Structures are given as C-alpha cells and as structure tokens.
Amino acid sequence: HRYTPSTVSTVLTYLREYVTKLESALQHAERRGNAPEADRLRRILVELNEYEHDTLYPKASENVVIDLDDGVKTNYPKFGAALRKIAGLEAS
Asked: Which of 29, 65, 87, 89 is the most interior residue, by most CB within 10 Å?
C-alpha cells in the first residue's frame, strides 16, 4: 500500500493533465469539423471539471489521512463521493 495524504493531490494532477489532453483533442475535432466528436468531448470535459471542482479538489485540500489497520469500512467513507459506492459496505 502506497497511500499518502498527498495521493489525492497526485490524482488531481493526473486529472488536470488528462483534461488538457482532452481540450487539445476538442480543438482538433472542432478544426476538422467533427461535430459529434466535439460534442462528446465537451460533455466529458464538463463532467470532469465538475468532478474536479465539487469532489476531487476539496478532498485533495483535506489531505485525507487513513490508517490501513482501520480497514475499508472505516477508511472508504473518508473519501465520500470521490469513490464509487461498494455494494454491501454500508449494510455490513
């Protein structure tokens, strides 16, 4: 396990690099007149920007600390909407 409190910030950096690549692809699609691809990329960029602003950036700012000895039931909820729900995690 290599999680550190700065791991979420690292993921945020990766997300921003990916968004930059998608923006470049969007510009390319627009220049070529590929409207369906440009629309698809715009939708993806909107979703990623919302995820960054509403979910990932706030968690990166928190520098979430976890203790692996606490287990998934304790650590997973600390990340809130940044992670997908695990079926049965809340029930058990």
From this structure: 29
